[in-house]
Design brief:
Blueprint: H1 2-26, E1 32-36, H2 48-56, E2 59-62, H3 65-74, E3 80-83, H4 89-101, E4 105-109, H5 122-130, E5 135-138, H6 143-151, E6 158-163, H7 168-178, E7 184-189, H8 191-205, E8 209-214, E9 222-227, H9 228-235, E10 244-248, H10 260-271, H11 276-287, H12 291-303
Helix pairs in contact: 1-2, 4-5, 7-8, 8-9, 10-11, 10-12, 11-12
């Protein structure tokens, strides 16, 4: 009885989804640029709106037409497909904008996920808006958000930092610039560079909690959890392929970004106008560090003759 009820419920779900898609397909698609998110692995993650736009748009601009043609063919979509990537963007962008100005709907898709996230497209969107053309985002899958929300790390504030530089020097510089950012960090990385990048993250950011997420939404989806130094050591023996995201916890409240010398200077200034107790409390609250640490620094100051 339960199985029959479940089957009936599933049939109604299929019918309702089909009705919704049919209604979307029946609506005319206005001229404009449509930023369409596509699956990052599991084809079931495509949205009904995305299907409806891709099916109705006469022109689809894709990062890799060979890759995207497989997606469109799977859903029996036969729009004109052209390549739009970093190597031909300067040439193709005016052509796409001209098509929109002529009354066409143009859909922009990337190889996977949400266009413009570590993919070409920003200048196309900007120039379309500058020309007064309509730009519509059709949201959906995103590897950065999938990694962030499955990592178990703080999500209230985060920074997507994309791919780090392939060479060590620029990579270390970028990590140093991000070191004090009070947010969870999300990176993309390649398999061959992963272990080295994790080691340099540990070197610059310290032994923070982190998650390495690979093949998200796909059959072999795997999440590795640990500190950056432990993950770097673990990845040395792994030969990971495919799409990889790295999520790194923010600096702790007792982060090393506020050193003892800075706290001591703060205490000296506070003790000019406050009691010892009030100065310790003021510096603790202002710097977001543990009271015990500031208290010990204050004791050392008073022993050395500070007011």
């Amino acid at each position: 009885m339960h199985e029959t009820g479940s089957s009936d419920g599933n049939s109604r779900t299929v019918a309702r989804a089909s009705e919704t898609l049919a209604e979307l397909l029946d609506r005319p698609l206005a001229a404009g640029l449509y930023i369409v998110a596509t699956p990052i692995g599991n084809l079931g993650d495509i949205s009904l709106r995305a299907l409806a736009v891709l099916a109705r748009a006469p022109l689809v601009a894709a990062e890799d037409t060979r890759h995207s043609r497989k997606l469109l063919s799977h859903f029996n979509i036969h729009a004109e497909l052209i390549a739009y990537h970093e190597h031909n963007a300067e040439r193709e962008r005016p052509r796409l904008l001209a098509r929109i100005e002529a009354g066409y709907a143009v859909a922009l898709i990337s190889d996977a996920g949400t266009p413009l996230i570590s993919d070409p497209g920003y200048k196309l969107v900007r120039e379309a808006l500058d020309k007064g053309l309509t730009v519509t985002s059709i949201p959906g899958a995103s590897a950065a958000l999938a990694a962030l929300t499955s990592a178990g790390l703080p999500t209230d504030t985060f920074l997507f930092a994309g791919f780090l530089a392939p060479k060590s020097g620029p990579r270390l510089s970028r990590l140093s610039a991000l070191k004090d950012t009070p947010a969870t960090l999300v990176f993309f990385e390649t398999g061959p560079r992963l272990a080295k990048s994790l080691a340099e993250m540990a070197q610059v950011l310290g032994p923070r909690e982190a998650v390495v997420a690979r093949e998200l939404t796909k059959l072999h989806e795997t999440l590795y959890r640990g500190t950056l130094d432990a993950l770097a050591a673990e990845m040395e023996s792994q030969a990971l392929k495919g799409e990889i995201a790295v999520v790194v916890a923010p600096p702790s409240a007792e982060g090393t970004e506020v050193d003892d010398a800075r706290l001591t200077e703060d205490l000296k200034a506070a003790l000019q106008t406050m009691s010892f107790r009030d100065a310790v409390r003021a510096v603790t609250e202002a710097r977001g560090v543990k009271r015990a640490r500031v208290y010990e620094l204050g004791l050392a100051l008073t022993k050395n003759g500070a007011p």
